[in-house]
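I'm stuck. Protein, please.
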Amino acid sequence: MIKKEMIAMLLAGGQGSRLGVLTAKVAKPAVAFGGKYRIIDFPLSNCINSGIDTVGVLTQYRPLRLNTHIGIGIPWDLDRNVGGVTVLPPYEKSTNSEWYTGTANAIYQNLEYMEQYNPDYVLILSGDHIYKMDYKIMLDYHKANNADITIAAMPVPMEEASRFGVVVTDEDNRITEFEEKPEHPKSNLASMGIYIFSWKVLKDALIKLKDQNECDFGKHIIPYCFENDKRIFAYEYNSYWKDVGTLSSYWEANMELIDIIPVFNLYEEFWKIYTKIDTIPPQYIAENAFIEKSIIGDGTEIYGKVFNSVIGSGVIIEEGAEIHDSIIMSNSVVGKNSKITKSIIAEDVRIGENVELGVGEEAENVKLPKIYNSGLVTIGECTVIPDNVKVGKNTAISGETTSDDYPDGLLPSGGIIIKAGDNV
């Protein structure tokens, strides 16, 4: 048996429904970020930078692009003979075929995978947060406290605390109370969904709760360990960490990358963010093009003007087009004289000529105000928008649309067009 001190289990099966049409065709961890990365690159890079060379990636919802992106782990130096990265989809057992039902159930279904490394510790991670963290320092903290479980936690504004699992600690940082998304939180120390378990404690809890319906860490495993007097400590983290689970937080996190001194630096030598790089030609900026405070991906051709935006690779922005405060993902095309304002445009989108996105006053989205808000226009993957149309704010479009879908050439603020077969 191969012995590993700590292995990581990365939960990447999330549908990310709060990202609306952005995740209609792709799992949330595979959504593009910062021009050339995908969200899952951040926890994977953290693992290799922290010296963790054995990572199981648990996939479920629309895993194809994630699997292709991860491959055998070469970009992260995780193509190892022993360990490395392994994609772990749900599989058919002899008796029945089981989807993962909850975060802990997903880990339970992969006990065999973990057992082959006989680890002392298991690190549980989410595949959908943007941050840099040295898990080795967290492990040292776990050992120093002789802890059974260490939960990474960070202070959040009190009014936001009810969105998270909240921990209450004593003067030694030992957790005395744990509440999952409480209505009236007793503390503002929020769990980040990053856990280190001593292997025996994790294995015991998973086996004990294996018949629990939709078994989750926050709702079941942690409370169970708590009731059984396990030593559970909070590891306080105070650097940049962003849950990019909503369109507005996703847009903000991308916009923060282009500040003159970004809060989150993608280019630090000592803590590299690795990703799968396709071999494509360099960007082409035409003589009359204009770019200000933006990230521009490789292979992108710009003939128009770009302000304060994040543009992926292989994008074409034609003459006379203007892009403001927007995210455009790879291989999308913006036609001549179109004006794009505060929009999130997914991969392989075709926007016609003389189109205006983000016009007029804000209005609440008619169907899904909790998802489509903050004045954003969200365009799903492979969408086609015809020439000469205008689109208001808090809107969403997905699918091949024609001018018939825009009465009087307009989708008003708060409107939504989802073509048959596309998810909202």
Remarks:
- The longest strand covers residues 189-198.
